[in-house]
Write a structure and sequence with these properties.
Helices cover 69% and strands 0% of the residues. The protein is mostly helical and 71 residues long.
Length: 71
């Protein structure tokens, strides 16, 4: 059996068309977005956001905020 590879652009076009046909535009886009690699450095961003606080300190802050809003 002999097979030939089609150009990747053809495969991408047909794949997107199939997704839109089967899922609709909105859900097809939601599906495609799941495979986005994203950008940036999660570890650096997380460290900058959280700082040097320990888990116990963060929990204490959350509890203090909750206490302000619970009658």
């Amino acid at each position: 059996m002999k097979t030939s590879l089609r150009p990747i652009q053809d495969v991408i076009h047909e794949g997107r068309a199939a997704l839109v046909r089967e899922l609709g535009v909105v859900d097809a886009l939601r599906f495609i977005q799941q495979f986005n690699a994203g950008s940036g450095n999660y570890t650096e961003e997380r460290d900058a956001f959280l700082g040097e606080e320990s888990l116990d300190e963060i929990i204490a802050q959350v509890r203090a905020e909750d206490a302000k809003h619970i009658p």
